[in-house]
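job 3f2a | input accepted
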Amino acid sequence: NAVELAAGDRSLLALRGRGTVSRPFTRIAELQKQADDQYATELKALEAERDEVEEQLRLVQQGDPEMGMDNQLVLSPEQEARVESFRAELVQTNQRLRAVRFNLNEDGERLEATVKLVNTAGGPVLVTMAAIVLFIMRRSRFAASRRLAQQRPG
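job 3f2a | predicted structure (154 res):
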């Protein structure tokens, strides 16, 4: 930095001072969006189901006048059974929601890790394979030229 500043050339100094540039994987972003869209409908359906169950549970616990329950402090055995079934359904819905969200995150992370692995290891693997092919080709040429030299009368 000091040498560049003393030389009077500020262009390199300006480049270095820019900070980090984000270059996201556009293909991964597209695939992530497709996965989000795929899981979005399932998530919305599960969230709607959960909201419906919570509303039914709230009505039973508060006492729904339409159902003949006017703010009773003590629930009948039938009402308690309904509350328990709603709670069990709510637990199942929440578990399915967590599973869908986990799968969504897992798919994205797996794809990103695979792309990073291919980008990191792909170059060295290709260079190694090219070197092996080149070695085999040269070896076979050398062996063929030796055979020709041995066959010629000398």
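job 3f2a | The first helix runs from residue 2 to 7.
job 3f2a | closed
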